[in-house]
Amino acid sequence: DEALAQAGLDRRALYVTNAVKHFKYEPRGKRRIHQRPNMGEVQQCRWWLTQEIDMVKPKLIVAMGAIALFSLTDRKDRLEDVRSRPIVIDVTRHLFVTVHPSYLLRIPDEIKRNEELARFRDDISQIGRLVA
């Protein structure tokens, strides 16, 4: 939300959804640790995501993380290979790939976390320029 605000984007004006519609977790005491969905679960939810895109008709889709990228494109590219640049989906739509915000929260090294947070803010700023 902070990165969106810095980029001049109002989250209330955006359509935010998830590629996978359920929360799979492993209980650890009182905490629930998120578990990465498998490819079958991603594919089972794809019809739902496709319907949302068809209804919303976005000109720019932002994939946050590898699961979102795979769900939207069926591609298993390394995130670094496609991050931070618009990709043409069709004549009316582009895809922009960045990291999932939860990734930033899990980086244990403070210097690396700050570097990645700065890159994420740059990505969000670029998205702001693309939609302007």
General description of the model:
It is a single chain. The chain is an alpha+beta fold and 132 residues long. It is built from 6 helices and 5 strands; from the N terminus they run H-E-E-H-E-H-H-E-E-H-H. A 3-stranded mixed sheet has the order 3-5-4. A two-stranded antiparallel sheet has the order 1-2. It has helices at 2-6, 39-56, 66-73, 79-82, 101-105, 110-131; strands at 25-28, 31-34, 60-64, 86-90, 93-98.
Layout of secondary structure:
Blueprint: H1 2-6, E1 25-28, E2 31-34, H2 39-56, E3 60-64, H3 66-73, H4 79-82, E4 86-90, E5 93-98, H5 101-105, H6 110-131
Parallel strand pairs: 3-5
Antiparallel strand pairs: 1-2, 4-5
Helix pairs in contact: 2-3
- Percent in helix: 40-55%
Over the alpha carbons, how many angstroms does the gyration radius reach?
15 Å
* Widest beta sheet: strand line-up: 3-5-4
Please count the helical segments. Answer: 6
Task: Please state the structural category.
Answer: alpha+beta
What is the terminal separation in angstroms?
18 Å
- Average pLDDT across residues? 93
Task: Note the quaternary state here.
Answer: single chain
Shape: globular
Q: How many beta strands in the DSSP annotation?
A: 5
**Poorly predicted segments:** none
What can be said about the biggest beta sheet?
A: 3 strands, mixed
Strand fraction equals 15-25%
Order of helices and strands: HEEHEHHEEHH
